[in-house]
Amino acid sequence: MAEEVNPLIRALEQYDVLSDEERDALRALPLRTRLLQKNEEIIREGDRPTHSCLLVAGFAARTQNLEDGKRQITNLHAPGDFVDLHSLLLKRMDHNVIAFSDCEVAFIPHGALRELIDRHNHLSRLLWVTTLVDAAIDRAWITCLGRRPAIDHLAHFICELFTRLKGRGLNDGNSILFGATQVELGDILGMSTVHVNRTIQDLRKLGLIDWEAGRVTIRDFDRLADRAGFDPAYLNQWVEPR
Amino acid sequence: MTQANTGTRFFFDVFDGSRFDHDEIGTVLASRDEVRVQSTTLLPALASDVLPDGNHRTFVVRVRDESGRYIFEATMVMSTGFLD
């Protein structure tokens, strides 16, 4: 029984009920775990992975590097997320995935995943849901990057991250642990470091959040969500036959 | 909020045409040259944050070092108006 699969089970159970047989099939997946330090590469652009990587603990980031040394973080992943399920079908990675914090990851051979998908149609659809939700998050980020003012954008990011973590029981009341630097937040939000700093102070002065030593506390979720125009429907966090 | 470990802390005071913000927290930057980069990208971002009304608006960033001395200033003036 692989304990490392539990975050994945919790993630999938956000979308639909799993049978005992399905849970057992997930727990029987062969996996090799690794501990990674912050900023270590998990997968590099151009790789042709033979395993998919499940995030067990910590945060991972998808990054695209620019020619001038700048980078954009295009998505963040939480425990229970496959960071590269798409490599099972797309074969060649078109971006990097790095450890955004110290991480524990589990590598699962593509052969075993293919067998799981062949045997368990319902699990296969739920894994499909995870990639569709990833794409929905990408759409939300594009809209924020392109159209939302800085303060609404940051508010939206905090609402989304909190809601994603809460869906897996990874929140601590109104707080989440998120140890990002201002530079990293700038890479997520497409903003300069100073602008990020200023925008955090603006949200703090409005009494919406506190952000101290890697802990983000939401003072008033409804007002923050209202500020951000945040509607969690795109995260699909409800149980329904799928 | 954690900051980069190496570098120098600079404080970016901002006047957006109506409000003066004294930066009490500061930002750690890797080099003094970064002060210019940060200031020049901040100014247009401020302008789009406040969506200026009226025909004239001046945005100023003044940067202090850790000793409290002002070391850099950047100003952006936005003038708008219909031509007819």
TrEMBL record, chain B:
Domain DUF6894: 9-76
InterPro entries recorded: DUF6894
Protein name in the entry: DUF6894 domain-containing protein
A Pfam family matched in the record: DUF6894
Domain of life: Bacteria
